[in-house]
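Predict fold of YkyB-like protein; 154 aa.
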Amino acid sequence: MMDRQKEQALPMTADNIAKAIYTVNRHAKTATNPKFLYFLKKKALLKLISEGKAEKKGLHFSQNPKFSKQQSDVLVCAGSYYFHMPPTKEDFHQLPHLGALSQSYRNPKTHLSLQKAKDLLQMYTGTREENTGKPMQQSRTYVKPVFKKLGENY
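Predicted 3D structure, encoded as tokens:
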């Protein structure tokens, strides 16, 4: 029996990794538990940057700042895609501030399944999603309620 995932796996090029990051990021915005997806995005972007396949362009004011405070995000260019990620202290000293985010630019549309994108990024970063399903709770045995008569101490 052939393993379909290995048969249809995408080549690990910088552009395919950028497409996978785009897909994971798009799904993370509406996921019920986006933590792992954002972690995968960040880890893949950091690895692309360290390999010289992506570049930090500058800082943008955040679209949705926490607690209504002004906040900045790092703009990262990977292939023909642009992503935002949280800044480090060094980023504030090393990168230029680009001001507000331009609404005119959109990343190219990509048709890639979330599962394929996750598989590619997990192979690239070497991380695996741990089973986040909560263990089944043991059913409790029914305990009958105890009622006391009015005025009686328990």
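The beta strands are 54-61, 72-78, 81-85.
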